[in-house]
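We treat protein structure as text, and this decision shapes the records that our systems exchange. Because each token names a local backbone shape, the row as a whole describes the fold. For reference, a complete record is included directly beneath this paragraph.
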Amino acid sequence: MKDKWKVFIRTPWFGSLVSLLVVLVSNYYLQLAQNEWSFRLATKFAFSWHTEKFLLGALVLYVLNLFIVSISGSFIVGNLFYGIGILMLGIANAMKMSYRMEPIYPDDLKMVAEWTMLKDILGTPLFALFLIILISLFLWLVYSFYKSLKLSVNHQKLRVLTLLVTSLLLVYVSHFNQPNNLLKKAYDKTALWIPYSQKMNYYNTGFMGGFLFNLKVDGMEKPENYSKETIEKIINDYQIKADKSNEVKQEQKQPDVIYVMSESFSDPSKLDGIEVTPDPLKTYRHVASEGILRGQMLSQNYGGGTANIEFEALTGFSMALLNPQMTTPYTMMLPKRESFPSLVSTLKNQNYETTAIHPYNTSMYKRNDVYKTFGFDSFIDEKKMKHQDKLSKEGFISDESAFNEVLDVLEESDKPQFIHLVTMQTHMPYTNKYAKSDYEISDFKDDTNLSNYAQDIAYTSKALEKFIEKTKKNDRPVLLVFWGDHLPSIYPDSIIKKNQKEVTHLTEYFVYDSQDQTPGMNQIISPFYFPSVVTQTKGIKTTAFSELLREMHEFLPAFEQEMYYYNQKWQKDVSLPKKEQRIWDEYQLIQYDIVSGENYSQKMFKN
């Protein structure tokens, strides 16, 4: 009997049973991480509430497990490699849920290759440990593969067959969102998808269900009335309005246009329960008071999503209208396109030179590829910057250095400039950034994250004031659009729960125009209206698309999923009168045409 048992445990059948057990445990672990380490909720999900979805997720993981095992040629090595990968995925998901209140998406896995960013987030010791583990596993996998070549012919045949079958199955799984996918149909029998809230979507369908839901998908669903004729009518209607507006702009001098997306720049005092002493934004408030527009900008996310806000501000397109699985256009859509209409192409058509500046590495969010798609003439990253001073050893390149880089670009050419700066100084982590902060947060006096963040935005405010004063010496007028991309993910849960959702999504912004001394208006705005704001100013010709944005902005100045600012109040949904609904529908048609359609409306973005 013992001999038979020894023989059995060496067979692929025993290894397959062990893999199945490992997969069930790993799927429970992923659910545990998704449920914020609540054994009660994870157990209820797996064995009571959603057992069918739990088993479907386990089936996908089992295919993945056997795929890795077949490559390594060893159940022990394959399961170890698989297990450590799942362990790290669960931890990463829990961290993202903690920092940004949203789960890991399939596209986030590409971030593993962002070594510099990982080092900054994890710190040098943890990053070094991560590298050691990763390299060790890889070398062990290679050695196991080499050793497995000596297995018997029968083992090799079974192994190759398993590799082939699991490869085909994984390819099929990757098309989860395609019509008639059998796995998706199996989920649909019991799953209630919640696309407007990915956090709830993962909770309701399980980590694996939510993860699969966010696999590759078209950018937008096709509107029912989409056609070439419909698009051409929209183009003609708004081109007439653009031509009329441009008649008065023929002789006006073109200004230099500067976009500044300031990392995590926001007003802590806007949150109920947070009081900062003294006011870290005292200088900023003075600077913003000179703007023709100022107030709060509605960010898509809390604690992250920088690239999505940047996408909105450059293109004029809303993330809220994209399919929920299109979580990051910068990595999922734009690198695959040769070109994409944006404020960059609009201004280049008016003889502007265009420059992107980001005091970090070029690979983050694939900006190097994305900026080429947008048509930027040049991209200055941290390695190309002349000014690289930092405010602290643990910090990033300062905003003052970044602003000085902008000033250098302005001086290098007589042509009008469009400069798009994405700053890094105020990026997390904040804990050890400064030895001492000049600011104190009542009720959270020992929280160095909050006090150092307050110090950060104060430094940014002073650097911004100096920068604007220096631009006033330029011969050419200046139009500056400054905004914070999102709130930092440093506030205690008690504060987040105390505030309405929209409050945690509002950052600061202002628009400064050296040619316009009109007293500034205070209003809430979405970043996708910024291109329209730019093209409505003196010296810059507007476009048919900008006119469409302008008209929509008049009645719906800000919106994201479940956050619509309409009639001076926040609503979860909005019902529009006939005229406004027509404009809203036209905007969605144009966005679909460019994102997923036939691109009939390309000329709408040219003056």
Summary: The mean pLDDT is 91. The chain has 22 helices and 13 strands.
